[in-house]
TrEMBL record:
InterPro entries: NAD-cap_RNA_hydrolase_NudC (IPR050241), NADH_PPase-like_N (IPR015375), NudC-like_C (IPR049734), NUDIX_hydrolase-like_dom_sf (IPR015797), NUDIX_hydrolase_CS (IPR020084), NUDIX_hydrolase_dom (IPR000086), Znr_NADH_PPase (IPR015376). One of its GO terms (molecular function) is hydrolase activity. The lineage of its organism: Bacteria, Bacillati, Actinomycetota, Actinomycetes, Kitasatosporales. It is an enzyme of class 3 (hydrolase). The gene is nudC. Pfam families: NUDIX, NUDIX-like, Zn_ribbon_NUD. Its cofactor is Mg(2+). NCBIfam families: PRK00241.1. This is NAD(+) diphosphatase. It comes from the Bacteria. Keywords: Hydrolase, Magnesium, Metal-binding, NAD. Residues 171-295 form the Nudix hydrolase domain. Its EC number is 3.6.1.22. The keyword NAD applies.
Length: 314
C-alpha cells in the first residue's frame, strides 16, 4: 500500500485538517486542573444534545459554533467532557444535555455535524466531531460489557469505569473503508444503495471485519458489493465519522476485472462511468452527485479532476 502524504484533492476533506486543538490528554485525570480550567474566564463550553449543537450564521457567510463562557453554561458535572486547549490557551469543554439551551437573541439554530461540518472552521468542526463522538459513546455504553453493572464516567469523559468489577472502558472507533475504484480505462465504479433516492450514486464502502487488514477490507467489500476484483489499493485520507462511532479510511483502488455483479442487498445498482459519461449524467439529472461532508464526494472529485456540481442535501 502506498500513501498519499499530501492532500491532492481539489477541496480539503472536512474533518481531516489541522484543527489547532491540542487534546491535552494528560490533564484528563487531574481533577484540580480540570476544576481550575472550568472556572477560568477564557474557557469555552460547547453544549451538545442528540448530536446537535447551536450554531450561528454570521453576516459574512461563515457559520460558527456557539461557545459559551463556563458561567453561562448549564450546571452539570456528570456529563462534562474535556476537549482540549488551543494556542491562545483557551480550554474547551463539551457539556452533554437533554436539550439545547434557549437563546435570547434568536440568532442561533441547532445543527448536526452532517449539516454544518463543511461550513464550520476546522477548529469548530473538530470540536463538534469530538463532542458528538463522546456523546454517542457515553449514551450507548452505560453498562459494563464484562459484568453488566452500571458504569460511571471518568477521565473527563474519555473513560467509563465499572464500580463492581473495576473494568475500564474506552471510547470505541469502528474502522470503515470507503473507496473509489477505477478500471484500466480509468472509468470510476459508482454504486447506488437500496435506500438511496433514485439517481444517487457514490463510492462503495463497508466496515473492516475483526482480524482483517484495511487493504483486505477494500478488496473484500468491492468483491462482495459489485463482484469486481481489486488489485492495487492506495490510501488517500481518513475522516472521523461519529454516526455513531466510525472512522472512514479513504482509498483509491484499481480494478483488475470489469464485469459487475451487485449483491442486490447493500448495493442495488453499480456502473462504470467515464468522466464524460458522468458529466453528461450530472447535466441531464440522471445521476445526483454525492453530497454532504462525506469523504466520498472528495474521492470522486479527486478522480473527476474538477469540483462536482452541488449535491442535493440528504
Ligand atoms: Zn463490570
Amino acid at each position: 500500500m502506498t500513501t498519499r502524504t499530501e492532500q491532492t484533492s481539489i477541496r480539503p476533506i472536512t474533518l481531516t485538517g489541522r484543527s489547532g486543538i491540542d487534546r491535552a490528554a494528560h490533564h484528563r485525570l487531574d481533577e484540580a486542573w480540570l476544576a481550575a480550567a472550568w472556572s477560568h474566564p477564557k474557557t469555552r463550553v460547547l453544549v451538545v444534545s442528540g448530536g446537535q449543537a447551536l450554531v450561528e450564521d454570521l453576516p459574512d457567510g461563515r457559520t460558527e459554533l456557539v461557545l459559551l463562557p463556563a458561567f453561562e453554561a448549564p450546571i452539570s458535572e456528570t456529563h462534562r467532557y474535556f476537549l482540549g486547549t488551543d494556542e491562545e490557551g483557551v480550554r474547551y469543554f463539551a457539556l452533554q444535555q437533554d436539550t439545547l439551551p434557549g437563546r435570547m437573541d434568536q440568532a442561533a439554530r441547532p445543527a448536526g455535524l452532517r449539516e454544518v461540518g463543511a461550513l464550520l472552521s476546522e477548529r469548530d468542526a473538530a470540536l463538534l466531531a469530538h463532542a458528538v463522538a463522546l456523546e454517542n459513546w457515553q449514551r450507548l455504553h452505560r453498562f459494563c460489557s464484562r459484568c453488566g453493572e452500571r458504569t460511571v464516567i471518568a477521565a473527563a469523559g474519555h473513560v467509563r469505569r465499572c464500580p463492581a468489577c473495576g473494568a475500564e472502558h474506552y471510547p470505541r472507533t469502528d474502522p470503515a473503508v470507503i473507496m473509489l475504484v477505477t478500471d484500466q480505462e480509468d472509468r470510476a465504479l459508482l454504486g447506488r444503495q437500496m435506500h438511496w433516492p433514485e439517481g444517487r450514486f457514490s463510492t462503495l464502502a463497508g466496515f473492516v471485519e475483526p482480524g482483517e487488514s484495511i487493504e483486505h477490507a477494500v478488496v473484500r467489500e468491492v468483491a462482495e458489493e459489485a463482484g469486481v476484483t481489486v488489485g492495487s489499493v492506495e490510501y488517500v485520507a481518513s475522516q472521523p465519522w461519529p454516526f455513531p462511532s466510525s472512522l472512514m479510511l479513504g482509498f483509491m483502488a484499481r480494478a483488475t476485472s470489469s464485469e459487475i455483479l451487485v449483491d442486490g442487498e447493500e448495493i442495488h445498482e453499480a456502473r462504470w462511468f467515464s468522466r464524460d459519461e458522468l458529466e453528461a449524467a450530472f447535466a441531464s439529472g440522471e445521476v445526483l452527485p454525492p453530497s454532504g461532508i462525506s469523504i466520498a464526494a472528495r474521492l470522486v472529485e479527486l478522480w473527476y479532476g474538477k469540483p462536482l456540481p452541488p449535491g442535493v442535501p440528504r
